[in-house]
Design a protein that fits this description.
Length: about 120
């Protein structure tokens, strides 16, 4: 799954249709998702050696936050985390972090990630 800005907006627009009821808590999470600082998210759960991975690409300005808050909080829910920097364009360096899982993703991983994103968007 690739979660690009266009896809995020497409799904958010679907959620905001008049016939979809959204309570305050869900609206809060929609706003958090809309402000995710990730450039691209890729995941593979089934049929992948090691039971799956989550690859997250972020802009250079979020690297310090990601390394000091996100990775530290999430490392206990996965087998390992690898980092590499990629030049996507001549002017933009993207950091890619790949989380490898012992087992498939678990709720604790996602709940922790959502909480970190919520805190990040509140601070900004």
């Amino acid at each position: 799954m690739y979660l690009t800005q266009g896809l995020k907006q497409k799904y958010l627009n679907k959620l905001k249709l008049p016939d979809v009821f959204i309570d305050e808590e869900i609206e809060q999470y929609i706003n958090i998702i809309n402000n995710i600082p990730f450039t691209c998210v890729t995941q593979c759960c089934a049929g992948h050696p090691g039971n799956g991975y989550l690859s997250i690409m972020i802009n250079k300005e979020y690297v310090e936050w990601f390394e000091h808050e996100v990775i530290i909080a999430l490392i206990s829910y996965c087998n390992n985390v690898f980092e590499r920097f990629e030049d996507i364009t001549k002017d933009e360096v993207i950091a890619r972090y790949v989380f490898y899982f012992k087992q498939k993703f678990n709720d604790k991983f996602w709940l922790t990630m959502i909480e970190l994103l919520k805190n990040k968007s509140v601070k900004e």
